[in-house]
Amino acid sequence: MNLRPEEISSIIRQQIENFETTVEVSDVGTVIQIGDGVARVYGLEECMYSELLEFPEGVLGMALNLEEDNIGVVILGPYRHIKEGSVVKRTGRIASVPVGDGLIGRVVNPVGQPIDGKGPIKSDKFRPIEKIAYGVIFRGPVNTPLQTGIKSIDAMIPIGRGQRELIMGDRQTGKTAIAVDAIINQKGQNCLCVYVAIGQKNSTVANVVQRLTDEGAMDHTIVVSATASDPSPLLYIAPFAGCAIAEEFMEQGRDVLIVYDDLTKQAAAYRELSLLLRRPPGREAYPGDVFNLHSRLLERSAKLSKDMGGGSITALPVIETQQGDVSAYIPTNVISITDGQIILEPDLFYAGQRPAVNVGLSVSRVGGKAQRKAMRQVAGQLRLSLAQYNELAAFAQFGSDLDKGTLAKLTRGERMLEILKQGQFVPMAMEDQVMAIYLGVKGMVDDIPVDLIRDFEVEFLKYMKAEKAAVGEDIKSSLEITDANEAKLKEAIEEFKKRFKSQHGIS
Q: Would you give the DSSP letter of residue 116?
C-alpha cells in the first residue's frame, strides 16, 4: 500500500497528539542476607514498622527491625526461592487482616486467607493487626457475666464480659477443653467467639473445628490457625490478627470471646524471631520486650462504655506450665497482666477431678461483680468450705479418730467435689448449675452414697426439667433464689430423693 507524504505526516502528528506517558514510581530494595525466615533488606529508607513488603513470587514479609543502613524483615510464607540480590517492593500497607461478618464460621490463617476449602472470604474491610488499646475513659464496668457452662468456674471463679482470665496448667490437663466448652456455651448467648490456635498440630486444630461444628458452635465462631508447621512469624502475629478481627465486632457494640491457645508458643516464636534479628536476649533468652508483647495484646480486651457502643472482648489466654511451675517467667508475666487465673492441677486431673481446677490458687479479680445473684447465693461459701475440706482430708489420711463435726465436713466436701465434676462438651445452663450446687451446699445429698452422687445429680436435673420446669424458669427469669422458689426447690428435692432412694435401695 502506497502512502502519500501528507498522509504519513498526518498519522505521525496524530500519534504525537495521542501520546501519553505513565511513570510508575515504586520504592525498591535489595535482599542482602536471607536465612531462617528472616531477611536483611537494603534501600527502603521510607519503610514503616510492621509494613508489609513484597518479595519475589508474591510472598509477603513484615518489617520488624528498622536500622540505620538496613531493615530486618520476617517472611510470612515460603522463602527458599528468595536469594541475595532479590528485589523487594514496599506495599505501603501496615500488616492487616480482613474483618467483618464474612469470617464467621470460617477457618483462616493469620494473614486472613481461608484454609478451610470453602472459597474466598467475603470481606472488603481490613484492619491493622496492631492497635493501641482503648484508654480507661472509653471503658465501662465489667458487670455482665460470661457463662462458661462449667460449674466450678461459674460458681467460684466467675468471668465477666470484658475480663481477661488466664487458663494455665501443664500439658494434657484440660486447658483447651475449658476454652472449647466456653465457646460451645455461647450458643444463643449473643456472643461471638474467636479461637486462635498457636503452634498446635494440624490434626488438633481439625479436631477442635470438627467438635465445634458438631456442637453447632461454628455458627458463631471464627478460627485463626497458625500451626506448628507454619513459619514463626505467623505464630507471632496470629493472636494480634485474632484480636483485630474481634475488635471490629466490639466496635459494632457486640460481645466477643477470644481464646489464645496458647501464648507460651507465641512467646517462643517471638524469641526465635528476636534472636534471628540479633536483638539482645534477656532472661531465659527471651527479648526484653516479651512482657510488652503480651500486655499490648491483652490490654485490647475491654468492656466499652455505653457511649462507645457497649461492646466487649473477653480474653481467655492459655499458658502451659512445666511441672506446675506458676512462678516461671512467662506465666508470672501473664498473671500480672490478666484479671485472674484458672490453674489446673495434674494431680487432680489424674485423680478424676475434671475440670481439674485448683480452687486455692485460682482467682477472678473482677468477675464477682458480674456474677448472677442466684449463683452468688448458693456458691458464696463454696470456696471456703472446699478449702477446709482439703485441709481436713489431708489430716484425716493419718487415720486418727475424728469428731462428728469434722466427719460432717468431710462427708459434705466429698459430695460437693463429686457435684463439681463435669464431662467435656456438656456445658450447663445457669439455672441447672444453681440447682446442682444447691444440692451439695445445703447438705441435701449428705445421706446419698458418694458413688451415686453423679447419677443423682443427672437424674435430678432431668426430673426438674420434665416435672418441675417452673422452678428452673423462675430462677432463670428472676436471676436470684427467692423464698418462694427456694421452698419449691426444697420440696422438689425431697420428692425426688424419696424416689431415688427407693430405686437404689437406700434406707
A: S
Each of the 507 residues of the chain gets a pLDDT tens digit; together they read 555 677 677 777 877 777 765 555 568 999 999 988 899 999 998 999 999 999 999 899 999 999 988 999 999 888 889 999 999 999 999 999 999 999 999 999 999 999 999 999 988 899 999 999 999 999 999 999 999 999 999 999 999 999 999 999 999 999 999 999 999 999 999 999 999 999 999 999 999 999 999 999 999 999 999 999 998 999 999 999 999 999 999 999 999 999 999 999 999 999 999 999 999 999 999 999 999 999 999 999 999 999 999 999 999 999 999 999 999 999 999 999 999 999 999 999 999 999 999 988 999 999 989 999 999 999 988 888 888 888 888 777 776 677 888 888 888 899 999 999 999 999 999 999 999 999 999 989 999 999 999 999 999 999 999 999 999 999 999 999 999 999 999 999 999 999 999 998 887
The DSSP line for 63-85 is EEEE-SS-EEEEESS--TT--TT
| Residues taking part in catalysis | 365
Distance CA 477, CA 474 (A): 5
Cα–Cα dist 305/149, whole Å: 26
Q: Where are the alpha helices (DSSP H) in 304-403?
A: 329-337, 346-350, 373-379, 382-396
**Helix, coil or strand: residue 144:** coil
Which residues 6+ apart lie within 8 Å of 138 measured at CB?
Answer: 302, 304, 305, 308
Amino acid letter, residue 33? Q
How many CB atoms lie under 10 A from the CB of residue 406? 15
Q: What is the pTM of this model?
A: 0.91
* Adjacent-strand bridge partners of 145: 160
Beta bridge pairs of residue 52:
62
Nearest to 197 by CA among 224, 166, 233: 224
- Between CA 292 and CA 303 the distance in angstroms is 21
Cβ-based neighbours of 313, under 8 Å, separated by 6 or more = 162, 243, 246, 247, 250, 256, 257, 258, 300, 301, 302
> Edge-to-edge strands of the sheet including 340-343?
107-108, 221-226, 191-198, 255-261, 312-320, 166-169, 340-343, 363-364
Contact 32, 91 (CB under 8 A): no
Cβ partners under 8 Å of residue 132, min gap 6:
none
Give 281's DSSP letter: B
**To the nearest 5 percent, what fractions of the chain are helix, strand and coil?**
45, 20, 35
- Torsion sign over Cα 44, 48, 49, 55: negative
| Cβ–Cβ < 8 Å for 429, 421 | no
Q: How many residues does the chain have?
A: 507
Identify whether the C-beta of residue 192 lies closer than 8 Å to the C-beta of residue 220: yes
Residue with cell 467435656: 424
